[in-house]
Automatic annotation (TrEMBL):
It comes from Opacimonas viscosa. InterPro entries: ABC2_TM, ABC2_TM_bact-type, ABC_2_transport, Alc_ABC_transptr_permease, Nod_factor_ABC_transporter. Residues 29-260 form the ABC transmembrane type-2 domain. GO terms for cellular component: ATP-binding cassette (ABC) transporter complex. Belongs to the ABC-2 integral membrane protein family. It comes from the Bacteria. This is Transport permease protein.
Amino acid sequence: MNSLPAASLWYTFQAIVVRELLRFFQQKSRLFSALVRPLLWLIVFAAGFRSALGLSITPPYETYILYQEYIVPGLCGMIVLFNAMQSSLSMVYDREMGSMKVLLMSPAPKAFLLFAKLCGGAILSLLQVVIFVLLAWGLDVNIPLLGLLYSIPTIFLTAFFLGSLGLILANHIKQLENFAGVMNFVIFPMFFLSSALYPLWKIQESSLYLYWLCKYNPFTFAVEMLRFSLYEQYNVELIALVSGVTLLCAFFAINTFKAKK
């Protein structure tokens, strides 16, 4: 197959990304739920654990912090996680309706088309995280202003990682009804078995087994990477780990993805 001109690829990329954005903004409840979920955690969950959970000074923090400040990076990761899974759900719907098959009939390479969808999802994740952090500022959560700028690349990398994982899941979900099972057996364990809500050293105090599960959970790598970037630091080791997992998931997703089961 002859390669398409760069201009044609660019127009294709734009069309796919814009389609993802339009679909999101047409579903107003999706934006509402994407923001309400982490805000409830920030307001209710943090209020309950503020006095019960003491936090020591660990990187990237240079002083003692309140619990609500600790969980903000984890909640940002949760936003990206749920947005990626929502995108995978929409791909299952597109496959059932036949529109995914039409998209993959394009002369553009399949890898390019899926990359464009991942970019659309990453832009939406970035938008939701920015809005959430702005709302968190209104609740007196101290996140450095420059931290938002520092976190843009790490949010995109996290979105590509979780989006690629979502592509893998979408390829194995035959019906929309099965998505609830994915929520229960993939998303929630990935989120709760991480450092999103509590530091690893606290988990180690209660269970060494859970500690090792959380420590080597790829989502923990992403959350900690976001944590460092929100405080104007880049952890090269974490970036390398998330990049490696992203490339692995993307390779597997692209080579196994089918338009229709």
